[in-house]
Amino acid sequence: MSTYSISKIYATDKKKNRAVDSLLHQEGINRDQNLDYTCGIFDETDNLVGTGSCFKSSLRCLAVDHNHQGEGLMNKLVTHLMSFQFQRGNSHIFVYTKVKSAKFFQDLGFTEIARVADKLVFLENESSGFSDYLSQLTKSEQHYQRVAGVVINANPFSLGHQYLVRKACEENDLVHLFIVSQDSSLFPFSVRERLVKEGTAQFDNIIYHETGSYMISSSTFPSYFLKDDELVIKTQASLDIQLFIKIAQTLGINSRYVGEEPFSQVTGIYNEVMKTDLSKANIDCHIVPRLAVKDNVVSASKIRQAIKDSDLEAVRPMVPQSTFNFLETDEGKQIIERIQQSQHVIHY
After folding, report:
1. Quick one: 153 and 125 in the same domain?
2. How many Å apart are CA 231 and CA 239, to the nearest integer?
3. What pLDDT, in 10s, does the model give residues 267-304?
4. Residue 190 Cα to chain centre, angstroms
5. pLDDT tens-digit profile of 299-330?
6. Do 105 and 125 reside in the same domain of the chain?
7. Which of 99, 287, 317, 330 sees the fewest Cβ atoms within 10 Å?
8. The N-acetyltransferase domain covers which part of the protein (predicted)?
9. What is the dihedral of CA 328, 331, 334, 340, to 10 degrees?
10. Does residue 161 register a pLDDT over 60?
11. CA distance 347 to 159
């Protein structure tokens, strides 16, 4: 009987990383760009026969050489990765997998949250995680006919975001405003949440929510087993919208407002999928043209680029006074320094 060992693969170990890439390619998987831990299973002769990785609280890029399948190696991989996650303080674990592999994870105690046709299943290791999130959402004590949902990252909060929220508030009795709470942005969540609430304080029909781990962003979505870039975007959108529909049904949301992005093919595809999928669930989708200031379309990417270029005067006409005031504080100056040191501030 073969003896196997499992160990961490360091980013500096080029030989083992080439072996990981080769094994993933052999098993029809591309290495995810977002990984913060990778391990390998090796046989007695130090050949790589299995690999798996993590990114934040998710498991990714799991593969076992097809010549060694049926030997319990995938179970060994998952056990090791779960132990690693627990050691670094992550007890709530997520996994995205092909439909054909979903039962394997369900047998290990994972619960399905959502799926996209025959492409992708999203699971978590807490049986009531998503249902607990739904039950914790703040609901209105009154019944309203027109209830809207808006989801924003606000990196940082701009006049464009404020314009989108204003439109939703003016056209609806109640607005559920979701702020992306995953800290994958140059402006941390605590700051983004504060700037959103300060920039929308004039509207009295908003209920604020954190998205938790249940609204997917491009920085965390797994694309490693989807071969086509457009398919990745469409699948990401469909999964995100399936989750939003369940949230909308809980809160009685019957419309969603999103900003148009005329310069982003990714967002254009995303919005079209959103419009189609929401209509199937009887939820209206309003794609709102972007606010323009002096014929200049306002976007968070432009604001970050101006900050990187040390041009705060270009930022001023694109943000509410509360956001600009924050940038002049010591905390704001620290974020400005971080942006100026960052290589990538524009997201496509």
Report:
1. no
2. 12
3. 778 888 899 999 999 999 999 999 999 888 898 889 99
4. 17
5. 888 999 999 999 999 999 999 999 999 999 99
6. yes
7. 330
8. 1-140
9. -50
10. yes
11. 18
Query: Is 64 in the same domain as 179?
Result: no
> Can you spell out the DSSP letters for 81-147?
HHHHHHHTT--S-EEEE-GGGHHHHHHTT-EEEEEETTTEEEEESSTTHHHHHHHHS---SS--S-E
**Cα(171)–Cα(175) distance, integer angstroms:** 9
- The DSSP letter of residue 78 is H
Res 294: pLDDT: 84
Do 145 and 274 have their domain in common?
yes
Neighbours of 9 (CB within 10 A): 19
Token pair belonging to 78 = 């998952």
Question: Does the residue 346 lie in any domain?
Answer: no
- Strands across the sheet with 206-210, in order? 206-210, 174-179, 147-152, 255-259, 284-288
Strand pairing category for 111-116 and 174-179: unpaired
CATH number of the domain to which 158 belongs: 3.40.50.620
User: Could you give the CA distance from residue 111 to residue 114 in angstroms, rounded to a whole number?
Assistant: 9
The 10 Å CB-count burial string (b at 16+, else e) for 103-141 is: eebeeeebeebbbbeebbbbbbbbeebbeebeeeeeeee
Evaluate whether residue 347 is within a structural domain.
no
Q: Which residue has the tokens 């669930």?
A: 281
Q: Which helix (H) or strand (E) holds 22?
A: helix 14-26
Mean pLDDT of 92-119: 89
Largest CA distance in the chain: 73
Phi/psi of residue 179, nearest 5 degrees: -110, 120
Instruction: Please give the torsion angle defined by the CA atoms of residues 224, 305, 334 and 337, in that order, rounded to the nearest 10 degrees.
Output: 90
Report the amino acid identity of residue 267.
T
